[in-house]
Amino acid sequence: MTQGLSTTQEKPERGRTFVSNFSMVVRIRGKFSLGQLQQALDCIRSRHGLLIPGAVEESLPGAHFPVCLLADNGNEDAWKEIVKEELRRPFPGEGGPFARFTWLKARDHSDLVGTFHHGVCDGFSGVYVMRDLLQVLGDPEAPAAPLPLLPHFSTLIPASVTTNPRVRWQLRKLVMTMRAALLLGRLRRRFIRQPAPASVEGSESTPGALPPELRMCILTQTLTAAQTTTLVQRCKAEGTSVHAAACTAWLRAFANTLPGRASRIRSVSSPVSLRNRLTQPVGDTTGMFMSTVETRLNCKPGGDFWEMAREFQARLKQSATDENLFRMPLMFGAFARSFSKEEMGEVARIFFQRQVTYDFSITNLGRLDFPSQVGPLRIESFHNLVNSSDLERTVGVNTFDGRLTFIFIFRESRMTPQDGEQLMRQAIRQLGEASGWE
User: Fold this and answer.
1) Distance separating alpha carbons of residues 390 and 393, to the nearest angstrom
2) CB–CB of 291/321 below 8 Å?
3) Cα–Cα distance, 283 to 148 (Å, whole number)
4) Are the C-beta atoms of residues 414 and 361 closer than 8 Å to each other?
5) Is 383 or 146 the better-scoring residue by pLDDT?
């Protein structure tokens, strides 16, 4: 029986530990050795020092990025199983390293998987690390100079935000709310018998033994170069963005699966880069320079696609103010100042197990500043994947080598793989019909 697409807002199971990782996967044509890969990783350590604090002392266990070499069993999608495991596996404590790599070696190609701690760095950081790594791997003489050190992130937030009385009051309310949640949790544990904790997300259990709420499904689809060009040109002609068009397509496709009485007001959470909003340029520096904004759209039947895309773009722009975007990093800073290290573990659990109020989280890295050829190495494809919570449907988007790729991740407790495949086909069909390639 086909499982329906749930629109209810549920809470994750108590006792779960959320692991916040993301992975970048590149398919490479061309030969290199494990020694060359390790040397290339060592070359970029000083450039991306935040990810590997132990690199200052070669004798420390954490002085090198971990690398795992695996043989490809001939399955074209074997990298997806690697990513599912990597997204669930936690990183060590404060000492790092906060990135690790898996080389899946096949006879005619290699899949290189880089996995990063999302509490330490954002998606663009992962792109820059993979780009610099491949530059050195393909050309050992390529420069990998250290990036300049930045002051603490809090000092880079515009004063118009940090001195805003409304923002300060909101932060105080958030701290008070979290303090009350911590107290309530202690009282429940003290006076109410709790069930045994569920399996931890980062456990080493066998993938086949995972319950449905933990099993991930990863689906991918890449447009042709001609389709991508047509989409980009049509978006420009219609006065909107590719991101707005993609979000509109996914929301319309999802709304079409809902029963008649379900609300047609659907929403997307869009990660937004803060790199160009800080008081000092950060360039390619590794770090967590992002926030999110939620955008709603009325997906009424029969609505004009491009009118809806322009409406989405306008709503996104209206919501993506400095005040709204910097609220998240300021909130985490306020939590860190207000709670002990032990309490912060519980704070993170409460935050990541909050209700999901949107239908999709759509992360669009845009057109990647990423070469397709480095020396003898041909970079064939690029995928960006993030570990969504149990209740999220996450769509990764990027444009590499002139082709736009969608990566759809969800738990099988949210929908079946068959439903996910149909939803992705419908979303891409929406784009094709609107752009004119269908």
Assistant:
1) 9
2) no
3) 10
4) no
5) 383
- pTM comes to 0.90
**Tokens linked to 264:** 């047609």
Contacts for 124 with CB less than 8 Å, ≥ 6 apart = 273, 275, 289, 290, 365
User: 212-325+357-363+390-435 sits in which CATH class?
Assistant: alpha beta
**Token digits of residue 438:** 């269908």
- Tell me the pLDDT tens digit for each residue of 205-235: 444 466 766 789 999 999 999 999 999 999 9
**Arch. (CATH architecture) of 21-148:** 2-Layer Sandwich (3.30)
* Side chain identity at residue 316, one-letter code: L
pLDDT digits (tens, 9 = 90+) for 126-168: 999 999 999 999 999 888 888 888 888 999 999 999 999 999 9
Closest CA to 3 of 424, 411, 415, 421: 415
Q: Which residue intervals of the chain bear CATH 3.30.559.10?
A: 21-148
Residue ranges of the chain assigned to CATH 3.30.559.30:
212-325+357-363+390-435
